[in-house]
Amino acid sequence: MKILAIESSCDETSIAVVEDGKKVLSNVTYTQIEIHKLYGGVVPEVASRHHIEKITYVLDAALKEAKLTMNDIDRIAVTSTPGLVGSLMVGINCAKTLAFAFNKPITFVNHIHGHIYANYLTSDFKFPLIALVVSGGHTELVLMKDHFDFEILGETLDDAVGEAYDKIARVVNVGYPGGPIIDKMAANGNPVYKLPHIKLAKDSYDFSFSGLKSAVINLHNKALANNTELNAFDLAASFQEAVVDVLCSKTKMAAVNYNAKQIIVAGGVAANKGLRKELTKMVESLNDVILTFPPFEYCTDNAAMIGVAAYFQELKK
Ligand code: KG4
Ligand code: ZN
Known about the structure:
Blueprint: E1 2-7, E2 12-19, E3 23-31, H1 33-37, H2 44-66, E4 75-81, H3 85-102, E5 106-110, H4 111-117, E6 129-134, E7 139-144, E8 151-155, H5 161-171, H6 178-187, H7 210-225, H8 232-257, E9 262-266, H9 273-284, E10 290-292, H10 304-315
Parallel strand pairs: 1-4, 4-5, 6-9, 9-10
Antiparallel strand pairs: 1-2, 2-3, 6-7, 7-8
Helix pairs in contact: 2-3, 4-10, 5-6, 5-7, 6-8, 8-9
The structure holds 5'-O-[(R)-(carboxyoxy)(hydroxy)phosphoryl]adenosine and zinc ion.
């Protein structure tokens, strides 16, 4: 089954063709990062306008790269939620138009399911598995006992991890998006600043990152007020250490308590080098647990992951 998948939930206009949930025949993404950089974050109205301008070019490129025409496509898939409403609408309207014009069925896909299924491009799934979802909008621990069977064990009570990275980067003025920049800085610093590692109740799978974010911002503001210098690399390393410690320990607790055979990491923050390193170390302490990350290019928003998720969503029907 060849699925033409569309993703436009935030600031990436992406269209892919995926065969049988595994083979990416094409994945073309136009990113608006350079535009939103000017504002230090995504401006929803600007994002939807750029999706409209680019989506037909991205569609053409995706079909060309796959060496296919719409006649070769069996099904359309599109991200329907969650995301910026105006941005989502552009993808959904494109999908509906193609479905009507070429008489194809549509699958509406949840964006987070897409991030989870990006891991299927690396490895088959072994159940029960624990998915650590870490994106700009979500932080969740999800238990999967089968394909397309999702039980949310815990989630953030305030900021998502990626959101905390982006907000801190904006305050300390190192650029946008903050995640990859702070990740690189952390590799060149030492975690010398004392920051809270907020784990909430001992047996809770929920997260909270706003206290940690405020602690970093307060440290920065105090240094400014006192005319003292903070080492930005050490601050990045200290923040990243706190984030990674909390994510790793909760993921381990979930994997042990639910006898997970596999841990998968989903969302933009799955690209984080510090997180990859510590999770790899943590999994070595567990018996026979497979750790999977999506390929780097499929960590942040892309349509290929939506095509994979749509395939399994349809199989499950
Ligand atoms: O999954 P994604 O593309 O969009 C959402 O669905 O939210 O994630 C984007 C988020 C941004 O907050 C970005 O800063 C973060 O992922 N990110 C990272 C890294 N690469 C992207 N965060 C930490 N370390 C990274 N290397
Ligand atoms: Zn995303």
